[in-house]
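Holo model, NAP. Inputs:
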Amino acid sequence: MTHLLILGGTTEANALAKTVAERGIQATYSYAGRVDNPRPQPLPMRVGGFGGVDGLTTYLRDHAITHVIDATHPFAAQMSANAVAACHKADVPLAALTRPAWVEQDGDDWQHVPDIDGAVVALSGAPQRVFLAVGRMHLEEFAPQPQHRYLLRLVDEPGALPLPNCDVVVSRGPFTLADDQALMQRHGIQLVVSKNAGGLGARAKLDAARALGLPVVMIDRPALPQRVELSSVAQVLDWLAHSGVNLGV
Ligand code: 3Y8
Ligand code: NAP
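Output:
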């Protein structure tokens, strides 16, 4: 009996969940519980960590999970590493549903940095109006650069912020070029800081930066462990069919 676990939290995970539900494949959609109101899914959901590799291994066994799709964000490196380790221990097939990294186009002015710390260093220097579009979880790391006026885009209303000069927009994606361009013009943005998330949900700020002739500090993705990587819902269905799942056709 098939029971698919989808490690979610991305546009691609949501597209997969819709198709899996339509096909009547038994599946569970998993959120970390990072935000107050995660988007509802057409599948049974679970919210919260598993408790590391051992917790996930136990979960896989206790719920007779037959397949895992890691459709988490490219920066969710700990979850992806845990999924590789736990699926190996529990002998459960694993595949990642990923999206390619963004690449510079004509008119882009990107400065690549290897990680969040590299972005913090790149913000040394005279005060600017910075669109710090990296979410909430790593804001403290930017505290050494308080001189800038920051525009923050967060999923939920924040508590105390680690930066003195901030404007906060509470908004979850997917975002549009028109809205991001208007937002960045309204705030007189001079520099954008972005993770290389890839996908369509967050690329609007990059297209807006290009249109406005603004530089971007682009944070490269963390290294992820070796695993099967698929890049479309169709490829996931094919992978499932080849590992014995009846797709309800
Ligand atoms: C809880 C679940 C969809 C999927 C929406 C995608 C697109 C919009 C772009 C900007 C960048 C950022 C952030 C972002 C994007 C999609 C996708 C994506 C970036 C939700 C969601 C959860 C989260 C967690 C949240 C993080 C934060 C990161 C905001 C749902 C909306 C900045 C990543 O406050 C917090 O604790 C937020 C935490 C991890 C990164 C951070 O460090 O703060 N995502 N985002 C997931 C869970 O609990 O398991 O409610 O939908 C999902 C989405 N976020 O089609 O609706 O697929 O990438 N999410 C980044 O890329 O830098 C926003 O503002 O331009
Ligand atoms: P992370 O740093 O890789 O994971 C930290 C811990 O959070 C994991 O070890 C696990 O806890 C728990 N976790 C993460 N994703 C989970 C999931 N889908 N289901 C259950 N537990 C999960 O992860 P993150 O970067 O905080 O991302 C958390 C969630 O937000 C993921 O669903 C991801 O897809 C989504 N997201 C993240 C970003 C981003 O920029 N990082 C952007 C968009 C969406 P245990 O060890 O206790 O199991």
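Residues 9-11, 14, 31-35, 38-39, 73, 133-138, 153-156, 172-175, 195, 197, 199, 201-202, 205 surround 3Y8 (ligand 1) (CB under 6 Å). The CA atoms of residues 9 and 128 lie 32 Å apart.
Archived with the compound record.
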